[in-house]
Amino acid sequence: MTTFISLRQVITSVVLMSLFAATIKRYSPTLLASRFSKPITARAMHIQSIPMWEGTGNNYAYLVSDEKTKEAVIIDPANPPEVLPHLKAKVTSGFNLTKIINTHHHHDHAGGNKEIKRSYDIPIIGGRDCTLVAETPSHKSKFKIGNIDVTALHTPCHTQDSICFFLEDGSDRAVFTGDTLFIGGCGRFFEGKPAEMHKALNEVLASLPDDTKVYPGHEYTKGNVKFAKKVLNNDAIKKLDEYSQANKETQGKFTIGDEKQHNVFMRVDDPEIQKVTGKKDPIDVMGALRSMKDNS
Question: For the whole model, what pTM was predicted?
Answer without folding.
Answer: 0.86
